[in-house]
Amino acid sequence: MRALKIAATGMSAQQMRVETISQNLANMNTTGYNARRAEFSDLHYQQMARPGTINAADGTVLPTGVQLGLGVRPSSVTVQLAQGSLSQTNGDLDIAIEGKGYFEVALPSGQSAYSRDGTLKRSADGLIVTSEGFALVPNITIPDDARSISINAEGEVYAYFNDRIEPELLGQLTLAGFSNSKGLEAIGSNMFLESPASGPAIVSIPGTDGLGTLRQGYLEDSSVDAVREVTELIEAQRGYELNAKVITAADQMLSATSNIR
């Protein structure tokens, strides 16, 4: 009976939806995290009578045909790109992006990764690095005797010293953008890799090319909407239960059929 297999694909789809929701809820407090949405497509159809088929008996054309769907399959898990709200931290190296850009990060392999996580740190060598210890691109080194630093909206990093009045410009942070940011490949630790779907990185100064600006002393909150996630969790649970009932009903029909004498 096809209903058993069709309902099984429905249960698998709802299970995947719940897994995606659980990932979102688990990252409610992850800096710069964007919620994901599981999307599905119907499977192939068994063509028992194609629409437009000519009826051999009288030559008429079937207006609709008989097409039996075989279930559902996952088609994608899409990142919902949305600006998260900003939380003030007053940290010198806490930087939020107001716009669609990404920080460029140098991985040990030499490859570039991209992140919206602005919880930056200072390494033992004075380099500005991510929480994982990866250096930001371009490299900017903070002198040991710097009293404090200031980062403006365009990414210019200034250091203040006790024995000088004027600040010293240390460098300028840049942002990267992509033609299709949803095509980036997530690798964990709030980082993404460029992919053929995302297109190449377009690196520019904050405030240009629509990449957004920087705000020192703030962090971007996760864009997960808890109310929406809970609502979708309930819908997914009900969908799973309905598919389970279909399996139960199909099993009872098979049982009734086998008991016919």
From TrEMBL:
Tell me the GO BP annotations in alphabetical order.
bacterial-type flagellum-dependent swarming motility
User: What subcellular locations does the record give?
Assistant: Bacterial flagellum basal body
Query: What InterPro entries does the database record attribute to this sequence?
Result: Flag_bb_rod_N (IPR001444), Flagellar_FlgE/F/G (IPR020013), Flg_bb/hook_C_dom (IPR010930), FlgE/F/G-like (IPR037925), FlgG_G_neg (IPR012834), LlgE_F_G-like_D1 (IPR053967)
Residues forming the Flagellar basal-body/hook protein C-terminal domain are: 215-260
Which UniProt keywords are listed? Bacterial flagellum, Cell projection, Cilium, Flagellum
Enumerate the spans annotated as Flagellar hook protein FlgE/F/G-like D1 domain: 96-159
What does the entry list under GO cellular component? bacterial-type flagellum basal body, distal rod
Q: Does the keyword Transmembrane helix apply?
A: no
Domain named Flagellar basal body rod protein N-terminal: which ranges? 4-33
Its main subcellular localisation, reduced to a broad class, is other
**Short name of one Pfam family for this protein?**
Flg_bbr_C
Q: Which NCBIfam families match?
A: FlgEFG_subfam, flgG_G_neg
Complex and partners: The basal body constitutes a major portion of the flagellar organelle and consists of four rings (L,P,S, and M) mounted on a central rod. The rod consists of about 26 subunits of FlgG in the distal portion, and FlgB, FlgC and FlgF are thought to build up the proximal portion of the rod with about 6 subunits each.
What is stated as this protein's family in its record? Belongs to the flagella basal body rod proteins family.
Q: What is this protein called?
A: Flagellar basal-body rod protein FlgG
Tell me which species this is from.
Answer: Celeribacter marinus
